[in-house]
Write a structure and sequence with these properties.
Blueprint (H helix, E strand, L loop, with lengths): L1 E5 L3 H13 L3 E5 L2 H10 L4 E5 L7 H10 L6 E5 L4 H10 L3 E4 L4 H15 L6 E4 L2 E4 L4 E4 L2 E3 L3 H12 L4 E2 L1 H8 L9 H13 L5 E4 L3 E4 L4
Parallel strand pairs: 1-2, 1-3, 3-4, 4-5
Antiparallel strand pairs: 6-7, 7-8, 8-9, 10-12, 11-12
Helix pairs in contact: 2-3, 6-8
């Protein structure tokens, strides 16, 4: 899952980037509203963490512009402002949730997981597909209740497919959602990760749809 972090306070930004990456997210970061708007309109993100008090273009304007352009990814607002009217304005502009600074990192991560789950139609923090279970909080994967060890990229691919079960996902889409913008992306490596996953989970779960991509089939 790929996150756009828009925060202009350097220390908090680094803390968030570290926590998000340790939680298995790919993270792109910018410290101003102009670049945030450009990235969010041109790249694919599973969620945005958006500070309101930004230079160049304020966060509320960025959010309004994204929604006006039809961008539907979940947005979690961060604000140092205590006024309830600011929170109401953010929700009315299209935010899905908000946190007031200072906040606990675990709460932010929990809210982010919930936003992504809801956006993909899942209610529980544990995603099941056949005998495969993914705990989105811990990143733990089991097959028939037995733990399975995955590399970071294998986990990112499986997590995206688990969130989008029974949907055809192209190699390009997977590439866009597991790598950060500055990463040397190669969609051919997706085939490698899929091949490795098939050796670690029931291989019939991941269907290759010729010419289109892959589908994680859940017949439950």
């Amino acid at each position: 899952m790929r996150i756009l972090l828009v925060e202009d306070e350097p220390t908090l930004s680094q803390q968030l980037i570290q926590a998000l990456r340790e939680s298995g997210y790919s993270v792109d970061h910018t410290d101003n509203g102009r670049d945030a708007q450009h990235l969010a309109l041109g790249e694919s993100f599973d969620a945005i963490i958006l500070d309101l008090g930004l230079p160049l273009i304020d966060g509320l304007t960025v959010l309004k512009n994204l929604r006006a352009q039809g961008r539907k990814m979940p947005v979690l607002i961060l604000t140092a402002r205590d006024g309830w009217h600011e929170k109401v304005a953010g929700i009315d502009a299209g935010a899905d949730d908000y946190l007031s600074k200072p906040f606990h990192m675990e709460e932010l991560l929990a809210r982010l997981r919930a936003l992504i789950r809801r956006a993909t139609g899942h209610a529980s923090s544990e995603l099941d597909c056949g005998t495969v279970r993914l705990d989105t909080k811990s990143g733990r994967v089991t097959v028939d209740a037995q733990p399975v060890t995955l590399t970071a990229h294998e986990l990112k691919v499986l997590s995206y497919l688990m969130h989008h079960q029974n949907e055809i996902v192209s190699r390009t889409e997977l590439t866009e959602h597991i790598y950060e913008q500055d990463f040397d992306r190669d969609s051919n490596t997706i085939e490698v990760f899929i091949g490795r996953l098939r050796k670690k989970i029931p291989p019939e779960l991941i269907e290759t749809v010729r010419g289109l991509g892959y589908r994680l089939n859940n017949t439950n």
